[in-house]
Amino acid sequence: MTYIFIFLGEFGFELFNWQGVIRKFSRTISPSDKIICCSRGNLYPIYEMAEAYIDIAEVDIFKQSRATWYWASPNRTVSMNFIRTWIFDRRLRAEVTSFVLNRLRATDQLKNGESFQFVFSSGKLDLNGCSFGVTRYGFFIDALAAVYDGLKSKFPAFVDEIDKLRRGLLGRLECLDMRREHDGAYGMLDIENNIYLSSPARL
To answer: What would the DSSP string read from start to end of 32-45?
Structure first.
């Protein structure tokens, strides 16, 4: 089996969580399995556990996106239209999938009939005890944040009231995911899920 990991989001989440989960996952597969990692830019040094690294920055639709936590959003303001972002993510995944498969086949790194599995950072998938992508709770919170941002842009006179409403609702939802201790991106770094936990802390 060839596992193809594709990171679409912000570098901080890639560095401090995503690549660490792949590192942990690489210790659970058989010697005949392969790992391919794909991201934007020359980030191959952090993926030394992979058999190959593919830079996906040249994919046209990817150029039109901006990194947002674990996924890519349309370059324009998301505002209240979170559905548009979801549709964009599906289109982006399809084009990146095609690009990566063409590249792997052109370089003979994926043979005809060879089984493979894509793992995108913008989705949620559990493999061999490793959790990849954003938590379902986190994805819901991001959708909620997009709605509130849209409300604030449409009703600027009520920004304080909207923020108060958002904080109150988030407070009630915190119990859904105990790992998320902060209202914001930092709570999305699931460091208990990656390989760093297996190494002693160094000062």
So the answer is: T-EEEEEESSS-GG
29 located within any domain: yes
Phi, psi of 111 (to 5 degrees): -80, 155
Is 18 within 8 Å of 67 (Cβ atoms)?
no
Q: CA-to-CA distance for 160 and 166, rounded, in angstroms?
A: 10
For 72, phi then psi, to 5°, come to -115, 140
Phi-psi region of 53 (alpha: psi -120 to 50; beta: other; left: phi over 0): beta
The answer as to whether 139 is a domain residue is: yes
* Number of domains into which the chain is organized: 1
Cα dihedral 107, 113, 114, 117, rounded to 10, equals 100
- pLDDT tens digits, 149-165: 667 777 888 788 877 77
Q: Tell me the HSE value of 142 on the side-chain side, using a 13 A CA sphere.
A: 22
Q: Is residue 143 part of a domain?
A: yes
Residue 203 lies in a domain: no
35-54: average pLDDT: 92
User: What percentage of the chain reaches a pLDDT higher than 70?
Assistant: 69
Per-residue pLDDT at 141 exceeds 50: yes
